[in-house]
Design goal:
By secondary structure, the chain is of the alpha/beta class. It folds into three domains: 87 residues, Ubiquitin-like (UB roll) (Roll), CATH 3.10.20.30; 94 residues, Elongation Factor Tu (Ef-tu), domain 3, CATH 2.40.30; 123 residues, Nucleotide-binding domain of ferredoxin-NADP reductase (FNR) module (Rossmann fold). 18% of the residues lie in helices and 33% in strands. It has seven helices and 19 strands. The strands form four sheets. The protein has a six-stranded antiparallel beta sheet, covered by helices on one side. α6 runs parallel beside α7. The protein is globular and about 60 Å long. Bound molecules: FE2/S2 (inorganic) cluster. FE2/S2 (inorganic) cluster (FES) binds next to loops.
């Protein structure tokens, strides 16, 4: 057993052969994570002292980041006592991850290539989660895919998902072909650490591309249901798509001091709105970033570019929270 020290001074023991992320979890400590497979980069942190060893490939680290001592906690174990620049996300520690049976309640086309699937779980086993988190749906033959939950907790316990069609995707064939109300599936969740944080920030900025708007919708519903969380805050929601058909949802922003800014990268001739990429539109708006917190969800390339551009423009490094969608066929 070796010991791992966090930024806060908190320590936990790490088992040999177990990732830092899982060792922390076994000790009741939640470190930032999403995919758990080395692909999203959310669990990236810096080793301040000690030695670690990779248990699997760290696909989302660049050569420069590796040279600078960065690691992925989902992929690395400690081989000596180590200190890492990570923090315990206390708020998520008490939430139990469950595997539950569920049934499809409704399936609705939101766009040609996006469906909304509403799942219902047995009344006695409501899923408790924080808006922003995701779940895995487990279908026939154990096929498993991750989807953000698109709603804040509902009194009926139903869970909304927004699912984009993936070309040649095995699960897509199900959602866009065979799926029907009352189908029995299983889900595992809630997963990931994407959720509202830094309650003191005066400006909240949401950046989304495609179905990355789903967890943003859930977080906006949470803000509306808890006016004390939104009080005194200015909220900006940038949602990027290629063309107008990608903007398949319109937010209800009653009670929030919020603006919604759809941004198209390949607009049709009649589009009068913003064009380009979401992170560029945000920078063009000249929003004061010192006291802002950014929540970004969508493609890996948007998240990577947004993080770099916003940090260079003055957003404090730790004020950027993200959940990258890593696609699977
Ligand atoms: S790369 Fe570690 S959680 Fe995604």
């Amino acid at each position: 057993m070796v010991s791992v020290k966090l930024h806060s001074g908190q320590t936990f023991s790490a088992e040999p052969g177990v990732s830092l992320l899982d060792s922390a979890k076994a000790a009741g400590i939640t470190l930032e994570y999403s995919c758990r497979t080395g692909r999203c980069g959310v669990c990236k942190t810096t080793v301040l002292s000690g030695d670690t060893e990779a248990l699997k490939g760290e696909a989302s680290l660049t050569a420069e980041e590796m040279a600078a001592g960065m690691i992925l906690t989902c992929c690395r174990r400690a081989i000596t006592d180590v200190e890492i620049d990570a923090e315990d996300i206390g708020a998520l520690g008490d939430i139990e991850v469950k595997t539950l049976p569920c049934r499809i309640d409704t399936i609705t086309h939101l766009a040609d290539n996006v469906v909304e699937v509403i799942l219902r779980v047995p009344p006695a086993s409501k899923l408790h989660y924080l808006p922003g988190q995701y779940l895995d749906v487990i279908g026939a033959g154990g096929l498993r895919r991750s989807y953000s939950i698109a709603n804040a907790q509902r009194t009926d316990g139903k869970l909304e998902l927004q699912i984009r069609q993936v070309e040649h995707g095995s699960m897509s064939r199900y959602w866009f072909g065979d799926a029907k109300p009352n189908d029995l599936l299983r889900l595992e969740g809630p997963l990931g650490t994407f959720c509202l944080r830094d309650k003191s920030a005066s400006t909240l900025i949401f950046l989304a591309t495609g179905t990355g708007i789903a967890p943003v919708k859930a977080m906006l519903e949470q803000l509306q249901a808890n006016p004390e969380l939104a009080a005194g805050k200015k909220i900006f929601i940038y949602w990027g798509g290629r063309s107008l058909t990608d903007i398949y949802w319109a937010p209800h922003l009653e009670g929030l001091n919020a603006v919604f800014i759809p941004v198209l990268s390949r607009p049709d001739a009649q589009w009068q709105g913003r064009t380009g990429y979401v992170q560029t539109a945000l920078l063009d708006d000249g929003i004061e970033l010192d006291h802002a917190v950014v929540y970004a969800c969508g493609s890996e390339s948007m998240i990577h570019s947004a993080r770099e551009a916003l940090n260079s423009a003055g957003l404090p490094v730790k004020h950027f929270y993200s959940d990258a969608f890593v696609s699977s066929n």
